[in-house]
Specification:
Blueprint: H1 10-13, H2 15-26, H3 29-44, H4 54-77, H5 99-105, H6 107-113, H7 118-129, H8 134-141, H9 145-162, H10 170-185, H11 189-195, E1 196-205, E2 217-218, H12 220-231, E3 240-246, E4 249-256, E5 259-269, E6 272-279
Parallel strand pairs: 1-6
Antiparallel strand pairs: 1-2, 3-4, 4-5, 5-6
Helix pairs in contact: 2-3, 2-4, 3-4, 7-9, 8-9, 10-11, 11-12
Length: 297
């Protein structure tokens, strides 16, 4: 999309924030970009003189467009092949040092948000992540303020009950990431097992497009053997792995023949990997080369 307007155009000024809003709502880079395109078209046909607060107007527009898209997407996801995981997104290394911000866009959090209804998700994000008042959210969603307060409380309790616990020590995460890549590259089953927690769970999202486990895998032995066995396939002999900040956390990118073929995010608890999420669906890897980034405000 080519834009010839001034850099002072509110849409351009707040585009990163708008993308961050849509992405947290949808967990999809492609859908978020579509929402921003629709918001841009709407913005260009709006009487700017009648808008007192352009930023609030644009966030409200993106939120409601995302709500409509998310409502339709939920039906599609019910027939999704295997576990559904959000599209991974490369983020600035700086975001990892902002614990609350990193948590709000982590793969684990996006998975939790997926268990909320579309309206609950919108209210939670606008209130807890972007700091809007209940009155502002009520106006944006065209709902009574008391109703919004109830939805906000219910959504917050739901997220707190399901929010995964994980270590935030960046040095330790760097060490574990390096050890994991070395163990995988060497096909060292014992080394992989030593890095996993006893009750580890692994999810892999292939979307029916590529080989992936159709159900979550549980337990150190089961998960480790699946990882080592998968990487031992002849067609993956030239696979390379490198660390990268994915969704605000240090994770692993896998490339083959110069193309990104997978992304791994994981939760670290007491120095061991508690949960692994492998995204290998080729349709969901475009955010790993996108320059959208995430707004820090």
């Amino acid at each position: 999309m080519v834009d010839t307007r001034s850099e002072q155009d509110p849409y351009i000024e707040h585009r990163r924030l708008l993308f961050a809003t849509a992405y947290r709502m949808l967990g999809s880079v492609a859908d978020s970009e579509d929402v921003l395109q629709d918001a841009w078209l709407s913005w260009n046909t709006t009487d700017r003189e009648a808008i007192r607060h352009p930023k609030a107007y644009l966030v409200r527009t993106v939120t409601n467009l995302s709500l409509n898209r998310l409502t339709c997407a939920r039906a599609t996801r019910e027939t999704y092949v295997g576990p559904w995981l959000p599209e991974p997104l490369l983020t600035s290394p700086d975001i990892a040092s902002e614990t609350e911000l990193a948590d709000s866009v982590s793969t684990a959090m996006l998975v939790v948000l997926e268990t909320l209804s579309p309206v609950e998700r919108a209210v939670f994000l606008l209130r807890e992540v972007f700091g809007y008042s209940h009155a502002e959210i009520a106006e944006a969603l065209e709902r009574p303020e008391p109703t919004v307060r109830q939805i906000a409380r219910r959504a917050r309790e739901h997220v707190q009950a399901r929010r995964p616990r994980f270590d935030t020590d960046h040095t330790q995460r760097q060490q574990v990431t390096a050890q994991f890549m070395d163990a995988c590259a060497g096909g060292d089953l014992n080394a992989v097992m030593e890095l996993l927690a006893p009750d580890v769970t692994a999810w892999s999202d292939g979307g029916g497009k590529v080989t992936a486990a159709r159900r979550p895998l549980h337990g150190t032995d089961h998960v480790a053997r699946w990882i080592v066995g998968f990487l031992a396939k002849p067609e993956l002999a030239a696979l390379t792995m490198e660390s990268a900040v994915i969704n605000g956390e240090l994770g692993v990118l896998a490339t083959l023949g110069g193309h990104t073929v997978g992304a791994l995010s994981f939760d670290l608890v007491d120095g061991r990997i508690q949960a692994l999420r492998f995204q290998v669906n080729p349709d969901k890897l475009r955010g790993l080369t996108s320059d959208n980034g995430l707004a820090l405000t």
